[in-house]
Amino acid sequence: MSTVTALTIVVPIYNAAEHLTRCIDSITANTFKNFELLLIDDGSTDNSLEILKEKEREDSRIRVITKINEGVSKTRNLGIKEATGKFIMFIDNDDYIEKDYIQTFIDNCIKNDADLVIGGYKRVNKSKIMFSDFPRDCDWGKYVILAPWAKIYNRQILIDNNILFLDYPIGEDVYFNLKVFSNTKKIVSIDYVGYNWYFNGHSISNTCQKGFNKDIDILFLLDKLIEAAHGQSDAYLKYFIKRYYVWFLLFSGRQAHRNDFIIEHKRIKKWISDRKFDSTLNPLSNDLKGEGIKNRLIIFAFRLLEKSYLIPLFSKFYCKGTIDYKSKQII
């Protein structure tokens, strides 16, 4: 038996008792066995910790770490610091993987001498596969899936370059991966789909955004993303930034007042102009292999609205929030 741990798998856990056993069992049942599994409880208030302790007793590869509730970024960062494996993976506590998942990523990492291997995923619920996606082997492909799962990383790259997740309400995984991209010699994309991203209607990521969050400054985040990319400004990064801010406006702005939507859009456009970071890449371009048709059409339409100065009119119909101008509260 090898004395060197090939892989560390980090699972951040918070109030995940309902699906936790499925997640852990899918990992321990994998055909590849030489790994350590760090189960990090982020101050759960349900019986997640009881399940974790039981699993730790059952399998010597499992190590349970407990901490106060600080959020997923600090929890993953603790996993990076505690890891001993040559490679590292991240899995979310509601999700599960196929039996050949680890072996497939390890094999592709070694075969290609890669620092990062990116795979695909299935979006699943209790009864069916909702959809699936995988990155194409092209320059745009690495931007398609920016979650930390469905990937394997060379841990030394993270250590040498002090790559950690950004402690911020949104964009923490995007920041992390952009920083990996800019410090990585070789990235490989594979068309393997072995990660099951479970749709949990009660999870934080699936709850409805009630307007623009006062704790989120999109300009701060955009600055951090550019910083993570080491000041690069290629066409794909510029397009990604555009796609990201459009997503932010549409997601947060749906339940916002139209005035707030317009203000946020103006702030972003000034940021783009000041940094000369506007994207000229056509969303319908063949260069964007792997970009979904829905994303293409949304970005294309939003760009037309911007060029036609129709964002104020669009916001009048799109934004559903009302506002008390004295208290500045959505009602």
Topology:
Elements: E1 7-13, H1 17-28, E2 35-42, H2 48-58, E3 62-67, H3 72-82, E4 87-90, E5 96-97, H4 101-111, E6 116-124, E7 129-133, E8 151-154, H5 155-160, H6 172-181, E9 187-198, H7 218-228, H8 235-253, H9 258-274, H10 293-307, H11 311-318, E10 323-324, E11 329-330
Parallel strand pairs: 1-2, 1-4, 2-3, 6-9
Antiparallel strand pairs: 4-8, 5-9, 6-7, 6-8, 10-11
How would you briefly describe this protein structure?
This protein has 331 residues and is of the alpha/beta class. The chain is 40% helix and 18% strand. It folds into two domains: 200 residues, Alpha-Beta Complex (Spore Coat Polysaccharide Biosynthesis Protein SpsA, Chain A), CATH 3.90.550.10; 113 residues, no CATH class.
What can you see in these coordinates?
With 331 residues, the protein is α/β, with parallel strands linked by helices. It folds into 2 domains: 7-206, Spore Coat Polysaccharide Biosynthesis Protein SpsA, Chain A (Alpha-Beta Complex), CATH 3.90.550.10; 218-330, no CATH class. It has 11 helices and 11 strands. The chain has helices at 17-28, 48-58, 72-82, 101-111, 155-160, 172-181, 218-228, 235-253, 258-274, 293-307, 311-318, and strands at residues 7-13, 35-42, 62-67, 87-90, 96-97, 116-124, 129-133, 151-154, 187-198, 323-324, 329-330. The strands form 2 sheets. Strands 1, 2, 3, 4, 5, 6, 7, 8 and 9 form a 9-stranded mixed β-sheet that branches. β1 (7-13), α1 (17-28) and β2 form a beta-alpha-beta unit. α1 (17-28) runs parallel beside α2 (48-58). The N and C termini lie far apart (62 Å).
